[in-house]
Amino acid sequence: MRMVDVVLMAVVPAPPACCYVALSYLWGGIGAEHWTMKDNIAERFIPGGLNIAHFPETITDSIQLVRQLGECYMWIDTLCIIQDDLEDKIHQKHAMDLIYGGSYFTIYAAGGTSARDPLPGFHPRTRSPQQHITVIQGLHLAVPLPGPIKALTLSVWNMRGWTYQELMLSRRRIYFTGQQVYFECRRDIFCKDVVAESRCLVSSTQPLRYKGAGNFTYLQKPMQVLFDQYIASYMSAIGLYTRRNLTVESDIVNAITAITNALTKSFELGGGDPARAFNFVMMLTDLEYVLVWQHDPRTPHVRRSITGEGSSPWPSWAWAGWCGAVHYPGEALYAHFDSHSDRPRVTETVIDPWYIVEHNGDTVQLDVRHIHRAFVRPRPQASMNPYSSPKGILEASQLRLDHHRWLEPGTLIFHTTSSRFSIVRGHGGEDVKSSERFYHDLFNILSNTSTWVGSVILSLDPAPPASLEFIVLSRTTAGPGVLLWMHVYVMAVSESEGLMEHVWLGVIHESPWIASGAKEKVVFLR
């Protein structure tokens, strides 16, 4: 790693265990003349090799701030990464969890639209007063300035994809916004208009408590009782991250790799090896959970464009392969009932084993965690014959389509059941019991007797077909007040020449699925 020595004004090798400050900012306005490159790295290693007058104001102000705070080292990607060295860029991108997670604090330049904008308020007349003050009978009454969440929501910085992991991984944060400066750590949050801080009050009564900019990603192994927290952390992160924008669409994986690296190491997923725990930023250790993502039906249902020589689309089962926001809604959304949980709940594994085609063309078995939760209520009489998925190690001949067909890396192979159901438009809208009101494109799944047996979310553009093929992913509960208590998560798929692709996700009652005459099938999901 390299650091900027703000005293010597040079790029230097990072001293062991050095205390440093990181910078999170917008890249706009930074030309190649400001980058550290192969042909100027030697010059920048010389004391005085960095001329602060030649850099955009966001960088120069941040360097001056770090000096004033008495710190010596700073990490700035433009200066610390050799921008025309592909190997160096890859190495640094895959170490972002260490860079931002290990910083003493991070400066967030969230008040402008490019790196040419100054840090608001750092110099005089760089921030316009926005507080409404009225004098009534000699009293000055002021409208409080917005909290950090709202202030950041108003910023361009908050909409950039790369800044999400820079926010989530940092332990201490100083935000420069168009309203004021905020400070946040894991225990407290303060800002410039908080002028009285009582030493007698407990921290929970602090006026800005729980109003910070976001959660903090675990960087240390938590207590055993919180060990499943990594699934909720992952789902929440994906939902927030995919609402942001990327200048380069193919950065969708790189710009969140630091989060998945941190989760892998702190929760020891895949033996602590990110390459074993994640593929296409999908958590391979918990496929039953991570496959039940839902695409935002308000955005075009189109595959993400991947540029580069020899590049091919990422697999359809990975959310990164699709443009637009995704979410992990609970099964209550599909089953038309109220629930306190907005996260999916998988009660039992029904697919075992899973296989994947690796980048070298080999097909390997995945180490997917088995799930079996005790049922808190007895099954209704209608579903006493529970769904049973085919199990057992597949033979080598079943792991390929034919002797001459080469499967693309990332193809999932597994044994499940398949059936076709009719689709009709449901009510949706305000009838959907979900905080995410945009899930209004809820379609009813009908059996061959035109009875409602489940629900699936589909986009209206393009218009959905009259029927769809579904495959079972896992078993889930539905909740009280519905006819059939047990459900299965199903994926709507399309098939071409033996290969299947993800279409949308839904939930179907267990008994009608069994009654539909579902057929066993070895799925090649690309």
Summed over residues and divided by their number, the pLDDT gives a mean of: 84
Indicate the percent of residues in helices.
10-25%
- What is the 3D form? globular
**Structural class label:** alpha+beta
- End-to-end distance: 38 Å
The main pleated sheet reads as: 8 strands, mixed
- Number of beta-strand segments: 24
With strands numbered from the N-terminus, the spatial order across the biggest sheet is 2-1-4-3-5-8-9-10
| Rg (C-alpha, Å) | 26 Å
The structural domain count equals 2
Number of helices: 13
Question: Which stretches are low in confidence, meaning pLDDT under 50 for 5 or more residues running?
Answer: 376-383, 428-438, 480-484
Strand content: 15-25%
What's the SSE blueprint?
Blueprint: E1 2-5, E2 10-13, E3 20-24, H1 41-44, H2 57-68, E4 73-75, H3 77-80, H4 86-93, H5 96-101, E5 105-109, E6 133-136, E7 139-142, H6 148-153, H7 162-169, E8 173-176, E9 181-184, E10 189-191, H8 229-241, H9 257-267, H10 274-277, E11 278-279, E12 282-283, H11 287-290, E13 294-295, E14 326-327, H12 332-335, E15 348-349, E16 354-357, E17 363-365, E18 412-425, E19 442-446, E20 452-457, E21 467-477, E22 486-496, E23 499-509, H13 510-515, E24 519-525
Parallel strand pairs: 3-4, 3-5, 5-8
Antiparallel strand pairs: 1-2, 1-4, 6-7, 8-9, 9-10, 11-12, 13-14, 15-21, 16-17, 16-18, 18-19, 18-21, 18-24, 19-20, 20-23, 21-22, 22-23
Could you characterize the architecture of this molecule?
With 526 residues, the protein is of the alpha+beta class. It folds into 2 domains: 2-216, no CATH class; 225-525, no CATH class. The protein is built from 13 helices and 24 strands. The protein has helices at 41-44, 57-68, 77-80, 86-93, 96-101, 148-153, 162-169, 229-241, 257-267, 274-277, 287-290, 332-335, 510-515; strands at residues 2-5, 10-13, 20-24, 73-75, 105-109, 133-136, 139-142, 173-176, 181-184, 189-191, 278-279, 282-283, 294-295, 326-327, 348-349, 354-357, 363-365, 412-425, 442-446, 452-457, 467-477, 486-496, 499-509, 519-525. The strands form 5 sheets. An 8-stranded mixed beta sheet has the order 2-1-4-3-5-8-9-10, with helices on both faces. A hairpin with a 5-residue loop joins strand 16 and strand 17 (363-365). The radius of gyration is 26 Å and the shape is globular. The two termini are 38 Å apart. Residues 376-383, 428-438 and 480-484 have low confidence and may be disordered.
